[in-house]
Structure formats: C-alpha cells, structure tokens
Amino acid sequence: MGSGIKDVVVRKLRLTSRAKKGERITLEADTSRNPNAVYDLLDRLGKSLPMHLYNVTQVEIAASVVTDPDKPPRTVPIRLTYPNSCSLKYDEVGINLREMLEASGIEPKEPAEAEQAEEASEA
C-alpha cells in the first residue's frame, strides 16, 4: 500500500516584514474550488507591495489522506513555521506526511541535521 496521500494544498501563508520588526501579513484563501487560491492571492498582493521586503515564515497545508479504504479521505492540517517547526505528530499518518515533505525538500530540520545530511551527500 502507498502513503495514502491523495492531494495537498496550501491554505495559508504568513509573510513577515524584513524592514519593520513585528509586521506580518497573513494570506488565507478558500482552496475548495481552486487549489492555487493562496498563490493567486499572493500574486495580486505582489502587484501592490514590494514582496522582496517579506519572508514567508509560516505555511499551513491541508493534506487529504486515506487511512481506511472503506472511508473517505481525512484532511490533515500541517503547519510549518520558520525556522524548523512542524505541527505533525509522529504517528503513522504524520510520519508518511513528513516523508512527503522531506521528498519535496521542505521538511523542517534542525541545523545540525541539515549539515550532516549535506556532508553525507558530498561524501
């Protein structure tokens, strides 16, 4: 059996100002009809704000996961926060989703883990 992950969408982005401490913008959109709704909103915002002055410091993702073949998929929220926080549990579903994030290159890692992984890949 595979991971059970059917689809994943970004529901929310938090942008933090690089210019003014404590200033943040949260973008949230309904992704039920348009899975790219948050990105579309970000594009519209980028036409009126200097986006180079903001960093993405938090992302909220919704993963649709089949845990029982006889039941509809369940939605698992995932919150990733800079520098390396992830809201997933370490149960079977959480571990599968962490593997998906790692395969995508976005799994949060402790700085020491990232350096060790880099050194191992160079050897």
What is this entry, summarized?
By secondary structure, the protein is α+β, with helices and mostly antiparallel strands.
The general outline is: globular
Strand adjacency order, main sheet = 2-1-3-4-5
Q: What count of domains describes the coordinates?
A: 1
Rounded radius of gyration (Å):
17 Å
Strand residues, percent: 25-35%
Count of strand segments: 5
Q: What string gives the helices and strands in order?
A: EEHEEEHH
Distance between the termini: 33 Å
Low-confidence stretches: none
Give structural notes.
Residues 102-123 are annotated as: Disordered. Residues 113-123 have a biased composition (Acidic residues). The chain is an alpha+beta fold. It has one domain (5-122). It contains three helices and five strands, in the order ββαβββαα. It has a five-stranded antiparallel β-sheet, sandwiched between helices. Strand 4 and strand 5 (85-86) form a beta hairpin. The radius of gyration is 17 Å and the shape is globular. The two termini are 33 Å apart.
